[in-house]
Amino acid sequence: MPASLRTGHVGINVTDLDRSVAFYRDVLGLHVLGGSAPGTAPERRVAQLGKDGSLVLTIWQQAAGAHQRDQAGLHHLAFEVDTVEEVREAEWALKERGATFQYDGVVPHGEGRDSGGVFFSDPDGTRLEVFTVSGVAGEGKAPFADAPTCGFF
To answer: InterPro entries in the record, alphabetically (predicted)?
Structure first.
């Protein structure tokens, strides 16, 4: 087993690459690090998005329709930030773009937990979370007392 194993980047399929690049850029502050050459066939277009020069997300224009929650595959993608204020900034940017939220406001991961965030979907229905590990206590009530909030959206 590799001792240094960690998550590198995540790749997801989207229906409209330009729309998704704008979403991840405007809402999460990711920058385009690379992508398809001009003239690439529409079904082979790709963009690599990152932060501070490091690759975070690769998006592929390969989906024929929205993400299906009831099929095997990615449950959700969570982005960690340092403070609850940054979670609120993401929430504001999402509201400005008319994003679909699962819960109202910043919510804890579980009753009595200090970690939590906002839970929403990207333009193709992929479930996303922006969270922080502390500072959420007192922000709101956890939607589920007996299970992690992020597991049931």
So the answer is: Fosfomycin_Res_Enzymes, Glyas_Bleomycin-R_OHBP_Dase, Glyas_Fos-R_dOase_dom, Glyoxalase_1_CS, VOC_core
Neighbours of 136 (CB within 10 A): 21
Answer whether 0.85 is exceeded by the pTM.
Answer: yes
In angstroms, the Cα distances linking 7 to 1, 10, 77, 123, 153 are: 15, 8, 12, 24, 22
Distance from C-alpha of 108 to C-alpha of 90, rounded to nearest angstrom: 16
8 A C-beta contact, residue 128 and residue 79: yes
Q: pLDDT tens digit string along 96-108? A: 999 999 999 999 9
Buried-state track 68-88, b at ≥16 Cβ within 10 A, e below 16: eeeeeeeebeebebeebebbb
Structure tokens at 53: 């020069």
